[in-house]
C-alpha cells in the first residue's frame, strides 16, 4: 500500500493522489461483498457513494489528468481495503498492540530487504524517488523520524482496534474523515480556509459517516 501510494506522489498532485486513495471505502465494500459475502445494503451503498462524491468535490481532481500512474494510488486503496478485510475477518481475537507491533516489524523487515539491494546497485541514482538510496540524515531528520514513528504507532494501534470490532466498510467510511481533520488543522495552523467546493465535499463526507453510523446502530438494535 505505502509503496504504491508514495511511488505515485512525484507523478501527480497530492490532491489527485488522495482522491484516488480515498476510493478505499468503495474497494472495501466491493471486496467485502466478493470475498466475505458481506451485505452492505442500500443505506450502506448510499453512504459509500456520498463519501466518494465528497472526496471528489474536496480535492477537485481534473478529468483530463488521467494517466496510467493513477493506477498506483488506486492500487494503494485496494491494498488498504484488503488489509482491513483481513484484519476484521481473521484478527478480531488478537490484541491491537500485537497487531500494530507485527505490522511495524513487517514494515521494517520489508524496508530493510529493499534497501539492501538499493545500497549495492543504486538503480535509481540520486534522482529517483522510489529507487534512490537514503540520503545522509542529520540529527534533526532522525528526531523528526522518531516523532513520526511514535505517532504512527498510536495510529496503527487505533486502526487495528477499529478493524477488529467493526465491519470494514464502516471503518473505511469514517477513515475518510481524514480530509475533514486536514481542513481543520489547515485553518488552525496555516490559515488555509477551504473553498466552498472543498467545504461541500467535507460536508458530504460527514453525512456519509453519520449515515453509516446510523446503519450500524440499527443493526445492533436488531440483534438485541
UniProtKB/TrEMBL annotation:
**Keyword Transmembrane helix applies:** yes
Could you list the residue ranges that cross the membrane? 6-32, 44-63, 69-88, 100-122, 142-163, 170-190, 196-214
| GO CC entries | membrane
- Keywords, in A-Z order: Membrane, Transmembrane, Transmembrane helix
Source domain of life is: Bacteria
- Tell me the InterPro entries matching this sequence: EmrE-like
UniProt-recorded name of the protein: EamA-like transporter family protein
List the lineage, top down: Bacteria, Pseudomonadati, Pseudomonadota, Alphaproteobacteria, Rhodobacterales
